[in-house]
Amino acid sequence: MSEVNRQWILKDRPTDLVGPEHFEWKEGEVPEPGDGEVLIRTLYFSFDPTQRGWLHTEASYVPPVQIGEPMRAGAIGQVVKSKNPEFSEGDYIQGTLSWQDYVVTDGSGPFPLQKLSTDYPLTYNMSVFGLTSLTAYFGLLEVGEMKEGDVVLISGAAGATGSAAGQIAKNKGAKQIVGIAGGAEKCKWLVEEGGFDAAIDYKSDDIAAKIAELCPEGVDVYFDNVGGPSLDAALLNLAMGARVVVCGGISSGYSGWAVPEGPKNYMQLILKAAKMEGFLVLNYMDKLPQAIADLGAWHQAGTFKVPEHLVEGLEHAPETLQGLFTGKNIGKAILKVTDSNV
Amino acid sequence: MSEVNRQWILKDRPTDLVGPEHFEWKEGEVPEPGDGEVLIRTLYFSFDPTQRGWLHTEASYVPPVQIGEPMRAGAIGQVVKSKNPEFSEGDYIQGTLSWQDYVVTDGSGPFPLQKLSTDYPLTYNMSVFGLTSLTAYFGLLEVGEMKEGDVVLISGAAGATGSAAGQIAKNKGAKQIVGIAGGAEKCKWLVEEGGFDAAIDYKSDDIAAKIAELCPEGVDVYFDNVGGPSLDAALLNLAMGARVVVCGGISSGYSGWAVPEGPKNYMQLILKAAKMEGFLVLNYMDKLPQAIADLGAWHQAGTFKVPEHLVEGLEHAPETLQGLFTGKNIGKAILKVTDSNV
Fold it and tell me: How many interface pairs between A and B have CB atoms less than 8 angstroms apart?
């Protein structure tokens, strides 16, 4: 592990797709923790669509990352020095840190440091029990109020959140689970590996017609990761009392929280007495123990798998973040902080 | 009252604004009720935005009105002949009937005939206790989950539903009630007569900036009657956990249930963990007694008024329906079935 502190600093705010050109590589001294603080050596970084939102100038649910600061990211690390009685040298922790080898923190904030168990691989905290799984879990079950026997439709279904949502729906007894993804390869994966009953290829299928064909009685829960034409097609095929879970929109990742065209069929919400609802995982932390218990039990039973897309080397962080928005990966993107210079 | 049965028949389906050109005046014989049926002489017709939805070819929550049929409408009438043991000659009733002097019905269907009290003016059943008031009541309180201390924003605020929603919000202890309407005259009415704390003129104000100025802590409940730019502006100014009640969209009244541009700021639902929800008053019939009790008590106390916009003469029905969508009227449009030929 390096004795210098390598960092990826935010250089410019992206206006469109985020990529390596928005970050600058820096090397500096390893910082010292003050009273109440710990020094953490980072081991793994998580890549999450919400990071794109942190790059806007305006605050969302957390303040934006400032120009000149290292890029904020979900991270797993190990405490190497502690001046905080709650943490000891050697503790493995998870928290919202930043793209650098070493981070000094007092462990507080909206995402406080959590000590990790060593009973299972550390990366499970980013995959099986990661933010993506929790997003799928709370989105589908709390916001989407999914019940046994529901017809569930999921867009971005081959992505990290979408594939987790599909498996949770199956574990919770959905009658039918249909995924929307781009391309024959992803659609094949959904049905053969992902546990989906059927797949719709938005690149070649008439999405609305295909949903109508596959779900003739309408969709009870639509878990939307993409917005755009998939959302409009789903709105045309809602069952009475349907719930549309607004989890993301690729468009928002590119250009902010407004999209070029909103869902023009949103008035279907009246005809079907349906709702569209957004959410923040933060608001469900009181239900975290139940989520961990459910996901853990399903994982152990082999009915909840989260494939990891592991990238090695801190130098690849910016391009791995970009990969989230260009649809290249299957599974949860995790970067292992190795030092290719040593 | 005429001895012929005068009717307005649906001649053509409107593709845009509905108007007199879509209906044909006919005169025929007064029908006879069969076993289990009653003959009703119509006295008043209600005008409601939902009637526009009944003119599409596809069914919504009820089947469409067919070409050649008299136009369906909420109505108050009096039983003139009865072969149904549940109704007697002279009973005043309310139901979903059609634009003609006489209607034969068995009283069943999704909107069954209701006998009316004669303790108060018959038209109160269309104004104070009418569908519009119930829409405002259930929309604001059940769908919008309005609580004491909430900041409430209402579009189409000078319309029948909007002005009812504003008064209900006040009776239920909203902290602040802001209305959006078109033109200085309507805005003046909102504040001076309608009980609103402030008004926004969408024709001359920057809607989003004005909402931000008037509601610096964000909007808890947005009751949307219009869609379009007002909805997008409201989405930019939601409080955390806000509820957007999708009650209508003037655009939908023109051209169906899809609009040219959906709400491009709908992704704000994620940032504010907020929901947009549509509804059908039909689904809240179990709570009707409470609604009638509340509205009646407020009406008696003078804190819930529904101005009636009374039009006389069946011949004016099509143009009165059109008036709903061209924003001409203040108050609840009701037509009194008088016969100008007698």
Answer: 118
